[in-house]
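Here comes my example:
=====
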Amino acid sequence: MRKVFLGLVVLASISFACKEETKEKIVEANEAVGAEIEEKMDTASVKIDKAIDSLQSKTGDVLEKGAEKLDKAAGKIKEAAHK
């Protein structure tokens, strides 16, 4: 009877110790995942900012070329009107 009781006490203490280790591992894993997600969000934010800057630059170039073409067309129309 004494051996059974001691066996149960040892089993309970091992079980409790394993639960604590498991909890610690879960907390560590949770923190690691959080840090990784934050890093990926920062990387994505930088990529998005670069894409926006590139798009704005390209849009500006296209608008300038369009304005130049309109000016040339307007000049041709004025010349044709004077003739």
Notes: The first helix runs from residue 2 to 82. Helices lie at 2-82. The two ends are 121 Å apart (CA to CA). The mean pLDDT is 83.
